[in-house]
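Issue: ligand-bound run for adenosine-5'-triphosphate - logging full I/O for the record.

Environment: standard queue, default settings, no custom constraints.

Inputs:
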Amino acid sequence: MNQTTPPDAASQAHPEGRRLREIESEQRVVDLAYGELDRQLARARRSLAATEARGADGTHQSRGERDAYAVHYSSLISSLEGVEDRLVFGRMDINPESAKAMGASSSPVTDSGRRHYVGRTGLQDERHREVVLDWRAPLARAFYQATAANPMGLVRRRHIETRARRVLGVEDELIDVGALDALADGRGPAGADHGLQGEGALIAAMSAARDGRMGDIVATIQGEQDRIVTSPGTGVLVVQGGPGTGKTAVALHRVAYLFYSERARLERSGVLLVGPSRTFLRYVEQVLPSLGETGVVSTTLADLVPGLRARGVEPAAVAEIKSRALWAGVLERAVRDLQRIPDSPRPIEVQGTVLSLEPDDVREAVSRARRSGKPHNLAREPFVLWLLERLTDQYAAATRQDASDADTRAWIREDIRTSRDARREINLCWMPTTPAGLLERLWARPDLLERLAPDLGAQERQMLVRGPGAELTPADVPLIDELHELLGPSEDAQARRARLEARRREELVAYAAQAIEAQDLGGGMVSAEMLADRVADSGPHLTLAERARADRTWTYGHVVVDEAQELGAMAWRALARRCPLRSFTVVGDLAQYSGRSAPSSWGEVLTALGTGGRRAASRSAGRGRAQGSTPLREEALSVCYRTPATIMEAADRVVTALGAPPVFPVRSVRDLPDCLSVERLEGGEGLDEQDWGQALRRAVAAECAGLDEAAGPGAGRIAVISPQAPRDASLLRADEALAAAMEAPGGDVLRSRVAVMGPVMSKGLEFDVVVLVDPAVIGETSPGDLYVAMTRPTRRLRVISRAGLPTGLDPS
Ligand SMILES: Nc1ncnc2c1ncn2[C@@H]1O[C@H](COP(=O)(O)OP(=O)(O)OP(=O)(O)O)[C@@H](O)[C@H]1O
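Outputs:
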């Protein structure tokens, strides 16, 4: 078991004195580490200031270099600032033989390599001697993975608890009893045989009141988690397991680990993190910066395409139809459908001469343009050019001109190109269009849909029909992305971009002219144009993440997808395009799928990544290679850190009774007394709104009071998860105190003490307390959603129901 610091003869008599001495001694090391952090931060800030002071002068190349340095120093500063909190959290004592074998060099803190301090980042002193070992360093693996059965050279693991640069306590685990004598300070506590590493620190982390933001787990990563965090970044890795097993936490730490182990590659390409909702992304946004990493772009699928807003809502059944793989073919056909060969010759009048657009010529032009391999809008140019050449020949013959020289041909071509007939007829054969325009046409024209998507049933097609001008929905976004690939930029878009650039330059020139005049700059040596060029060149300093986010065609070095069981084939295709290397961390739990028919395997979910259709892995070890070109590995986590055992067991019973049992049953690390209460209201479904409102307010107010008592006044977070969230939210607001507790600064529900949401919105989140409304209603449409809703609390679940209770939940 864990104890605080090893007892020796003196400490038997004065254990408190011994504890204080240990704390004091660790404080000296922690002071040294923060001193080093401060020194490095000050140096980076000075370098940034010096770089910026160099101004916008110099050659194009030197301005580019200056910008690159500025971005580098800014990121370095953010990284160093990010690791301030709990900079050092662990110490490893290594047996002398292992230390010698590792050949570790000595430093003021390492005791000839026999002692290492583990922290959020690696720090060395000015003489390049180790002060803090980065938690991702190979040597630090023993801190997370060593057990009594496999000590990995570790004699003792120490967790150091700090707050705001002060050491508050230490917690020791003895790993290798046999090696203890070899250590300078002799004896230690009994060996660790509980299977959890740093149990005290772990339980403390889990018991702390939630504050609406996920914290990192770097100080308490467990062995099974660490093996996933540090597994190589190649291929597709599925991290699965029941609720609260740390899948999200592990995936985020894996990103930080990959930045460490493959920094050169990922610093150039960045990492994309895809989450189920903006709220979820806000929930996890602190984790990577707290590990010193900033090169991550996070997005929902709805926000995947820069500049596109998908604010429309539609039934889940419609979104499901849009997610199917068949759309790849349908959209391809829709684009080819814009390339038409007329049934008969079309007359074209050019300055009084009538030419004929021949179907055979159009056929040839179409096939040449398609052979160019360019997307539709870009292939239009070779298509038009080839037809214009044919029409030019016709015109020359009809007007008896010699069109053998380039200038004459160019004149004729221009006359044809600008004639109304030619424009109309050529457009009809090869219509330029935008992704949103084409999709709008598809939804608005059932006849078109029937022709292009014959595999859909008539009823399904009917469900897709939507009038022109309607808002795009999140499920439209992967289709739009696919269409971007098939269509390429439209002439309109290209022209718009050129116009914008021209306007921006005009503004810059005007601004520069004013500046020259106002400040009497230049002395005749600098023109407004020159100054405008410099301002444009020196532009804003964009970080990699900012550049990547704004560029739809950016390819990332690694992609993490959370709640991945929800993504359909079209979404995976969009993500596959963003990572041709197919380096993916796929996080999810098939049992938490929203809807009735969850996919049966990850192979089925991930077909679009080229992993083949077969799963080749088993439960925990679960490594294997699927048939297909992209290697697929599956790992499963088995310990729930979030939800008390009583609640977890109830959730398992309920979904099992609904015919959707957990894919991986999990073991909770703790249980709490009185953590589950279930109430079926008298009056049942016949209860009127007023009585229901009252009962709900009473329940939520009681939970607020209970949490005040358990965590301190106002501390902790409560979620009310209801199938009728908006209506229940307004009922709760009738109580002034609850309305105040529901206030969400900046619209961020995670900042409110009481958040009301539907079950889908609660995916991936966690709260101290959950008040769950009408679980049977949720379970009826989606057992997975009920599983999610029941497993969000860290302390307590209160069920309040008007409808009958689902099997497995009995009134308490
Ligand atoms: N090793 C650990 N040390 C401390 N806390 C941990 C550890 N592992 C997980 N946790 C905590 O457990 C909680 C659940 O983790 P996380 O959200 O990553 O689980 P999950 O498997 O993604 O859950 P779900 O599938 O329910 O969304 C979080 O508060 C996380 O910080």
